[in-house]
């Protein structure tokens, strides 16, 4: 009889869903693997947007989100809820993604039940425990719990090797975010949002902005938004599109600094499809997000990262991403350079693809089969030429 692996994909936030959705879809194609989905719903609306788009109906939904939740709330509720799901489901492997608190807790719950853990997007590191917070520690702890590490790049693999992880248990796959992006981006896209369709993309320079990092709440975010205000005042052809994260603490600061500023469009989080296609029309991107640092370079869009550290050095090396931190002066100066000088802009606006080739999910599926002995050959690794 052919062996069937029971997998349980567990995720809870928007970026995890975007990066796990193509994997869930890929696993549906593999006879040897039966994959179910459990969501903690650490995010609610922002998660549901992605589930709807990809047509995924989770078998289990813990629905844990509360307004202004703390790390303790998420950890405690998810751990107890997942215990029951694992007891009922008895999977062979739990698949988790990246570095959220859902990720770490799902890894921990699986370990407590002695179920194997597959970590997708494994091995990213800044080396700074508090930056990003709590993500750097979440991914290190998940790495310690994992049995198979699906690293997006060779840099990520090297990080794991330097921590003593067995190389046989690491596979370089590329990042699943590129699988999702390639399936979503389209030329001549129209939005169906009057505010976005009303912008003249040929004659305006559109800056796309997102922020949400816990360590940036308060003064750092205030500085970022004040800098943006200054840039918009200085350049009359600039429009800012800023889909504001649902975290009420973020929204409050955004509204207080940027509310009612001409040419600054503060909108609700966009669905993934319009968001990617908005980035595709943008002049450049300012963000503290992890995922955007992977997506924008592959669309050839310069990215200014509103953080002091990054776990994604590949696009910095390629010249498309620059770390600008949260200093008012640094942000205004760097934006001005990009807006004043074609040469400076062209230096950064290169389409680079260090993060994937759209086949990461296929490699992960084959990797799981190899790990469980139902496929003889190790999948070929993702390589950048
Ligand atoms: C979480 C992750 C972070 C990830 C980010 C992606 C942790 C600790 N943080 O941060 O790693 O990069 O998601 O966006 O795992 N909210 C809503 N509706 C939503 C989503 C959030 O109302 O759909 C509000 C709630 O009030 C919630 C708050 O946002 O309490 C914060 O959500 P939380 O998941 O704790 O933190 P994020 O900053 O979103
Ligand atoms: N994104 C989206 N709608 C938005 C803003 C972002 O769908 O309005 C997507 C974006 O394309 C990326 C992901 O959400 O794939 C990034 O999520 P976030 O910034 O919340 O988290 P991080 O990447 O920092 O973990």
Fill in the keyword field for this structure.
385 residues; alpha/beta; seven-stranded parallel β-sheet; 16 helices; 44% helix; 15% strand; binds uridine-diphosphate-N-acetylglucosamine; binds uridine-5'-diphosphate
- Residue stretches low in confidence (pLDDT < 50, at least 5 long) are none
Q: Averaged pLDDT, please? A: 97
Terminal Cα separation, in Å?
41 Å
- The secondary-structure class comes to alpha/beta
* Biggest sheet overview: 7 strands, parallel
Beta strand count: 13
Shape: globular
Strand order in the largest sheet: 3-2-1-4-5-6-7
Q: What portion of residues belong to β-strands?
A: 15-25%
Q: How much is the radius of gyration in Å?
A: 20 Å
How helical, in percent, are the residues?
Answer: 40-55%
Could you spell the SSE succession in H and E letters? Answer: EHEHEHEHEHEHEHHEHEHEHEHEHEHHH
Small molecules in complex: uridine-diphosphate-N-acetylglucosamine, uridine-5'-diphosphate
